[in-house]
């Protein structure tokens, strides 16, 4: 997918830093209004995290959510785990997303 994430560079850097600190092995997709062009300045950032095994991330995910909540990022960052989403929501996300963080190389 092409990178069409509408997010100021400084906010993106803050998000990417927290992702690397808390879930370095997860592939992270951004989706929703900041991808499809329907956002405004205060729109939230929707993320879905995919572990290498596609299983729940456990406490790493919980810690990440808390880190977003405590951060100085001036927009709401909503994160979900791929493993816990219904198949219908997964299909909707897969229709339009940007890879914000790549997972580890597959061997």
What can you see in these coordinates?
By secondary structure, this protein is an alpha+beta fold. Helix content is about 35%, strand content about 20%. It contains four helices and four strands. The protein has helices spanning about 10-20, 35, 60-70, 85-95; strands at about 25-30, 45-50, 75-80, 95-100. Strand 2 (about 45-50), helix 3 (about 60-70) and strand 3 (about 75-80) form a beta-alpha-beta unit. The chain is globular, with a radius of gyration of 13 Å.
What are the salient characteristics of this protein?
4 helices, 4-stranded mixed β-sheet, 36% helix, 107 residues, 4 strands, alpha+beta
N-to-C SSE string, H for helix and E for strand? HEHEHEHE
Overall 3D shape: globular
Give the CA-CA distance, first to last residue: 22 Å
Return the structural class. Answer: alpha+beta
Give a count of the beta strands, DSSP E runs of length 2 or more.
4
Radius of gyration (CA) equals 13 Å
Low-pLDDT sequence parts: none
Helical amount: 25-40%
Question: Counting H and I runs of at least 4 residues, what is the number of helices?
Answer: 4
Q: Average the pLDDT over all residues and give the rounded result.
A: 93
Oligomer: single chain
How much of the polypeptide forms β-strand, as a percent range?
Answer: 15-25%
Strand adjacency order, main sheet: 3-2-1-4
The main β sheet shows up as: 4 strands, mixed
């Amino acid at each position: 997918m092409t990178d069409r994430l509408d997010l100021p560079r400084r906010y993106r850097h803050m998000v990417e830093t927290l992702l690397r600190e808390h879930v370095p092995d997860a592939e992270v997709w951004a989706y929703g209004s900041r991808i499809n062009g329907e956002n405004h300045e205060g729109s939230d950032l929707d993320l879905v995290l995919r572990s290498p095994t596609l299983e729940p991330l456990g406490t790493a995910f919980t810690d990440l959510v808390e880190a977003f909540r405590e951060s100085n990022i001036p927009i709401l960052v909503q994160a979900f785990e791929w493993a816990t989403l219904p198949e219908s929501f997964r299909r909707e996300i897969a229709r339009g997303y940007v890879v914000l963080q790549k997972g580890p190389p597959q061997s």
